[in-house]
Amino acid sequence: MPVPVLLVTGFLGAGKTTVINHLLTNAAGKRLAAVVNDFGAINIDAELLAGSADGVVALQNGCICCTLQGDLLRTLSLLLRQEPPPEGIVIETSGVSDPAEVVRSLLDPVIWREAALDAVLCVADARALTDRPPLLEDALLLSQLRSGDFILLNKADTVTAEELAALRTRLFALLPARTVLEAVQGAIPAGLFFADEPPEAPDRAVPVVSRFSTPGFESLSWTADRRLSLPRFQMAVSRLAPRLARAKGILRFEGQEKPMLFQMVGERATFGAAPPSPSGSAMVRLVFIAENGRLQADMVRAMLEECVA
Ligand SMILES: Nc1nc2c(ncn2[C@@H]2O[C@H](COP(=O)(O)OP(=O)(O)OP(=O)(O)O)[C@@H](O)[C@H]2O)c(=O)[nH]1
């Protein structure tokens, strides 16, 4: 099983380090490693992060999107060879870099097998975006926002509720498919990242919507004891995608011997080899996570049941 990677991008000073510190100290028992990047000779970020958790590695003297890309890959393999290996890796990109290059290197199949990009989080400074509306036309910031599966409006304590709502409206007009989160001091819902395997629904016949451990989000689990039709599942997921923050599942499709691990973040869906399932588990296990009120259990169940082959 590849180790999931969360890439954290965002403008200078938006709060990337603060978010990473929050994740490292709220990892719900998960052993996370962080690769931080400080643009410049003095590695302030590494000093800040030191002591937060084991396995923190700082890349010095540059930017991981260009000169230190080789180092990023070496660093990843170093982290992966730790005993025991981390259960998740957070990578911070420099505030002055376009994360697209890092995303491209992480999508390399050789790396993917060991460290799979799970999600990109773009941290934005709610105060700065409110005070300087033209920032949303800045090419670099736009590229950072575009690469984010999740956009975090950090420093929510520095703006009013009306200003936050206005920012959401502008972001929606610009990037309608993104999940926009809000946070103070980078306190993001850690459960959205490095999520556990999909649980068994208590009653297999009925999809269950339950409050996610993270305020503001809920999850829906669904299991089935028959294989699914791949084209019908793809159709259902593309229709559901705009409502979802993420999805994860162990799936079996007709005509395919092996189970697949399905993951979806934002609009990006991937299939990979599934880890071994506990004996007695259902053939198909799926969990959807969405902002409260966006999942209607009956509608989702009907759509999923149509996928059963
Ligand atoms: N008021 C307020 N300040 C915050 C919040 N989050 C972070 N800060 C402050 O914002 C400043 C920048 O935060 P960092 O986490 O260092 O930001 P960064 O994106 O890692 O910065 P660079 O690495 O320089 O690009 C620090 O002084 C933080 O204490 C917040 O939610 N509210």
TrEMBL record:
Homology family: Belongs to the SIMIBI class G3E GTPase family. ZNG1 subfamily.
Protein name (Swiss-Prot/TrEMBL): GTP-binding protein
Chain ranges of the CobW C-terminal domain: 217-308
Organism: Teichococcus wenyumeiae
Lineage: Bacteria, Pseudomonadati, Pseudomonadota, Alphaproteobacteria, Acetobacterales
SMART domains: CobW_C (SM00833)
Residue spans crossing the bilayer: none
Catalytically driven reaction(s): GTP + H2O = GDP + phosphate + H(+)
Record InterPro entries: CobW-likC_sf, CobW-like_C, CobW/HypB/UreG_nucleotide-bd, P-loop_NTPase, Zinc-reg_GTPase_activator
